[in-house]
Specification:
Layout (H helix, E strand, L loop, with lengths): L1 H21 L3 H13 L20 E2 L9 H7 L9 H18 L5 E6 L2 H12 L5 E6 L2 H12 L3 E6 L8 H11 L3 E5 L1 E2 L4 E2 L5 H7 L3 E5 L18 E3 L12 E6 L1 H7 L13 H7 L16 H17 L1 H21 L16 E5 L6 H12 L1 E2 L1 E2 L8 E5 L7 H17 L6
Parallel strand pairs: 1-12, 3-4, 3-5, 5-8, 8-9
Antiparallel strand pairs: 2-10, 6-7, 9-10, 11-14, 13-14
Helix pairs in contact: 3-11, 4-11, 12-14, 13-14
Amino acid sequence: MMQRTVFRRAALLAQQAALESSLPTKNMIMMLRLDRCMSSVSIPPPACMLRPLEAPFRYLFGPGPSNVPPRVLAAGGRPIIGHLHPEMYEIMNDIKKGIQYAFQTENNMTISMSGSGHAAMECAVFNTVEPGESVLVAINGIWGERVAEIAERIGAKVHTMVKPPGGYFTNEEIEQAMAKHKPVLFFLTHGESSAGLCHPVDGIGDVCRKHNCLFLVDTVASLGAAPIFMDKQNIDILYTGSQKALNAPPGTAPISFNERACHKMFNRKTKPVSYLFDMTHLSNYWGCDGQPARLYHHTGPVSGFFALRESLAILAETGLEESWRHHKEVAAHLYKGLEDLGLKLFIKDKDLRLPSVTTFAIPDGYNWREMLTYIMKHHQMEMTGGLGPSVGLVIRVGLMGYNCQKTNADLALAALEDALKHCKKSKA
């Protein structure tokens, strides 16, 4: 019994010694406090950064971005390679060919911007317009307003043709304005998503050539959803964004320049205001300038280019004509459902409606913000109100690319019907 007690005391003493050796001594605590005082870090790690990333699932039935198909998400999740590796150049070459197909152009000067549609918008203006030159901008929604401001900021003499949201310009009106202002560049939005209008393009390129003016067209909301033919329609500069009917994540923006545009931008008297968007450098980075070597200009969004390449592959597999037909068919299904709910389509002329983004007038007596908040809360679904000059006039429903399905149109219609039943209606 005595021996067992001795052993037990020895074990307890050993445990206590081990515990004391693992605890910080008074000197150690003093050293830790001194080390903290001498640290150059005064801001602690934010608590939010110590939690896992969370992002909810949403039905993105607004004007963009749209939900991205799993195949494109998987492409964007592939292992990173160097932005100057030969394999990356091959992927960029594929992207160039995919854009040429989507734009229906043989232009060599075809690339993707490292940025959203606004990057392509600025690239087009920055490279083809110099301070003091005349620019003509057709404004029937927010995108014309943006281009006018961009051109104004670089010192151009900006002239505008303005119509209310949903309005369109005749070729005669455009030619009269060109004859008056003698612009070097004319801008038109093909898919005006803020109003839901698909603007006619035929013949405008011919008018521009007659007046020695470059024709710049925005197809961010329309490419893949509505027909556009860059070469046949004599469009000099065309751009789009990745996040709408193309169904890639936001962050890349295809753009193409024909020979007329290249002659103008490569014979400037002054350098473009942006180094990042200077086509002298970007044309080399994309292998469009005929030089044997591609030199470092900037680090392109490698994962974004993976995703863009895959989205262009899906469009090529589907076929442009089938994509246009499908968007038109689903849009027609949505139009009928909206009218059955008693809602009034904003664009009266069926031929002028943008298939990818449908607009309807805010129903009488309803608060559009309340309706959209209700739909988001109860249906996890994004729809949006107007933008720029169309704010307070319309609600916008976007069904494009991966989201362009009649089942999704039915989900959107059910959510709208629910909102109309449960949101307060004024007695006006």
